[in-house]
Amino acid sequence: MTVLRLDLEYDGAAFHGWAAQPGLRTVEGVLSDALRVFWPHGGRPAVAGRTDTGVHASGQVVTFEAEGGLEAARVPAALNAHLPPDVAVIRCERAPDGFHARFSARSRLYHYRVLRTREPSPLRAARTLHWPREVSMEQLTACAARLPGAHDFRAFTPAETQHDVFRRIVLAAAWEARGDELLFRIEADSFLRHMVRTLVGTMLQTASGERRLEPFARLLDGAPRAAAGFTAPPHALCLVGVRYDNTN
């Protein structure tokens, strides 16, 4: 049995997230259909991070147990011939012994893009959150500086949740100005559902004067969901990378 590592890119707009669900179009569902063409008896693919409905990925990682079949070098072209245009296998390689897309991962990196122009941009609407209000970069930076470390993020995930543990370790977080856009980068060991999007919404409201900066740090100590701000929409969020020990 060979374990293959697949690196994926997908546009999440037309998917109901990663995880297969009866009657719904998901990334796992269409990928599994393509995998079964070549490995009809293969198991369920394992994924580094389950993305929510509407969230994109440029650096998703999947592992799959393959018995026989194609050589790794031929897998991307073969699978892409059976995948829809909004998902693609970028590369494939034989995984090291013991490697698992989810359990071997040390961290995941997400980007969220915000458009700061007064007028909307139809050409960028599918990848950015339009935020025409005034924003203080100093306030955004101050909020992001409080995120690294271990915190209880229950204020940043839906109140009705399947999560039992709300503690997550943020390795890095920062806002960056790129012309008329703002880019939020956050890397953590793992993420709660809607965590990045609710952080973004809360920070934008703080930097726009709708919320005060002082209480932001207290939100990281297990405050209830109602204490945090709004959940930013998913279309501007992208999983851009997964870090493993001794590999990318």
Tags for this entry?
248 residues, alpha+beta, Alpha-Beta Plaits, 2 domains, 4 helices, 30% strand
Structural class: alpha+beta
**For the report, how would you describe the main beta sheet?**
10 strands, mixed
Number of helices: 4
Query: What is the CATH topology of the largest domain?
Result: Alpha-Beta Plaits
State the fourth-level CATH superfamily of the largest domain: Pseudouridine synthase I, catalytic domain, C-terminal subdomain
CATH level-1 class of the largest domain: Alpha Beta
Q: What sequence of helices (H) and strands (E) makes up the elements?
A: EHEEHEEEHEEEHE
> What would the average pLDDT be, to the nearest integer?
95
The CATH architecture assignment of the largest domain turns out to be: 2-Layer Sandwich
Write down the domain tally.
2
Write down the overall geometry: globular
Q: How many DSSP-defined strands?
A: 10
Please, what is the oligomeric state? Answer: single chain
Strand content: 25-35%
How far the N terminus sits from the C terminus, by CA atoms, comes to 23 Å
